[in-house]
Design goal:
Shape: globular
Distance between the termini: 20 Å
Radius of gyration: 11 Å
Largest sheet: 4 strands, antiparallel
Helix content: 25-40%
Number of strands: 4
Length: 71
């Protein structure tokens, strides 16, 4: 999966019951490390995950979002 495909498949904004609204932020896009989090109004982040590929990261972030009730 490419970065563009990843971005089309994950929510760009979530409403977390604990942290409120958060916007997707890419924190790493290097050859061996892809990383994202959801940045909230208070500048705190939730859901931070890293993986070697966009495919692996997609699995991790979707699992997190499902467990938090965000998708």
């Amino acid at each position: 999966m490419t970065k563009s495909e990843f971005l089309l498949r994950v929510p760009d904004i979530i409403n977390d019951s604990e942290h409120g609204y958060g916007e997707l932020e890419i924190v790493s896009n290097t050859k061996g490390a892809k990383g994202v989090c959801y940045r909230h109004k208070d500048n705190l982040a939730s859901g931070g995950n890293y993986a070697a590929s966009w495919d692996q990261l997609y699995i991790k972030i979707m699992e997190y979002l499902k467990n938090r009730g965000c998708v």
